[in-house]
Design goal:
2 domains, 20% helix, alpha+beta, three-stranded antiparallel beta sheet, four-stranded mixed beta sheet, TolA/TonB C-terminal domain
Length: 188
Amino acid sequence: MRSRGNRQSAPVGITRSSCSGSPTNLRASSASGEWVVPARVRLCRTGSPAFRFAVSTLLLVLLTTVLATRPGRAQEPSVKMRGEEVFSVEPVVVTAPRPITPPAFKEIARPEYPEVARHRGWEGTVVLLLQVRADGTVGEVKIREGSGKPILDEAAANAAKHWTFIPATRGPKSVEAWLRVPVKFELR
């Protein structure tokens, strides 16, 4: 195919030597321009109507095939809906990160109940925020909510630094994540 600006020319050379009359151009339009079968295609005005129909049908099928299989164009022909043409385009691709599977406990050692807190009858719940690294170890430890007794908060935070986890994952990859862990101190 030769390209001339926005016009495309398909070199199809079907002729019938016994035809009289002037050569006829066949045209087909697409979103990328107009396709023209050159005047070398001669459709006879006086020839057999069946022959003229067969040649024009063959050429239109050829042009339709060429237009439909061009890269970057829709493969489906347009359809009419309520009298208006409807065209197909490439799909709109929407992407989002995969969801994170949260970390899970692997090995934890319960914190020691501080002797002073036990003798004085102190109880409470400490809420920790733990940074669980991609290798399952604990990075940073923050006290989100204290128990009201700093000795209990410190015992929970110190124990959490030595815990190990099955790391969080995003798809097949291990990732860092933050985990909220309540630690409850109670006397029985």
